[in-house]
Amino acid sequence: MDNLHKELILLFISVIAGFIAGRIAGTFPLSLLAAVATTLIVYYAVDFVIKKFVKIESKDEE
What we know:
Blueprint: H1 2-25, H2 28-53
């Protein structure tokens, strides 16, 4: 269940960042590309940081 919460938080952060980037980019084709690229980059960057620097303990390991 902890993994699902982490994935939902990652997805929320990346979608919000993609939405903001799309709004800044302006017109339709460019805004769509900016939103998709930003969503992917932010998702994998935050996922990497969490895996590298944050230790998430599972309750099942006890």
